[in-house]
């Protein structure tokens, strides 16, 4: 570069120095990001042990207060087919991704048990979402069972309200 154009040497030296120092800094930032993701996983486990609701623990770990969890009903339990319910057992539409929200399906033993709806900005950190949902897997399973039980109770209540004519009392005189 000196022989061709001397001022270019200074520019090329500066460019080389900047690019040479950027590589280790980027590497260190990547390691730091992974460490922070791992600490989020530990935070979820500790929060769940202290009784924090699952949705709140996931929202804090993912830094997304809009996180929603919906649970897949087990179609083999006689609930009128498989569907999705919220934590209270109320039926909800199947989760669909949108421009602002993404869906992370949670599977256990190859069966979809829940879906986590989160902000689309977390698409840049799939390892974090995966690690946090894996850490919360047992709690997700327990909450899914509770939601399924609430759905069964709601269904039983609806059936009891709609079939009063099937119940009858007979007194000693046959009336």
Question: Can you describe what's shown?
Answer:
- The protein is built from four helices and five strands; from the N terminus they run ααβββββαα.
- The protein has a five-stranded antiparallel sheet, covered by helices on one side.
- Helix 1 packs antiparallel against helix 2.
- The chain starts with 5 loop residues before the first helix and ends in a 13-residue tail after the last helix.
- The relative contact order is 0.12.
- The mean pLDDT is 78.
How would a textbook summarize the main sheet? 5 strands, antiparallel
Distance between the termini: 111 Å
Instruction: Report the uncertain regions.
Output: none
For the residues shown, what is the average pLDDT?
78
Number of DSSP E strands = 5
- Content-based structural category: alpha+beta
Shape, please? elongated
Radius of gyration (CA) equals 27 Å
Strand fraction: 5-15%
The run of helices and strands is HHEEEEEHH
- Strands across the major sheet, in which order? 3-2-1-5-4
Number of helices: 4
The helicity comes to 40-55%
């Amino acid at each position: 570069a000196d022989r061709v154009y001397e001022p270019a040497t200074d520019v090329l030296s500066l460019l080389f120095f900047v690019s040479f120092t950027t590589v280790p800094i980027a590497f260190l930032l990547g390691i730091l990001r992974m460490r922070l993701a791992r600490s989020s996983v530990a935070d979820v486990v500790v929060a769940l042990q202290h009784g924090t609701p699952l949705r709140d623990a996931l929202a804090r770990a993912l830094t997304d207060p809009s996180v929603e969890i919906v649970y897949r009903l087990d179609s083999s339990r006689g609930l009128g087919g498989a569907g999705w319910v919220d934590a209270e057992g109320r039926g909800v539409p199947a989760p669909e991704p949108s421009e602002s929200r993404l869906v992370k399906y949670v599977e256990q033993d190859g069966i979809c048990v829940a879906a986590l709806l989160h902000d689309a900005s977390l698409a840049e950190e799939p390892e974090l979402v995966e690690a946090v949902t894996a850490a919360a897997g047992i709690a997700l399973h327990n909450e899914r069972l509770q939601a399924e039980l609430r759905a069964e109770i709601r269904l039983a209540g609806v059936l009891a309200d709609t079939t009063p004519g099937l119940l009858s009392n007979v007194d000693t005189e046959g009336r």
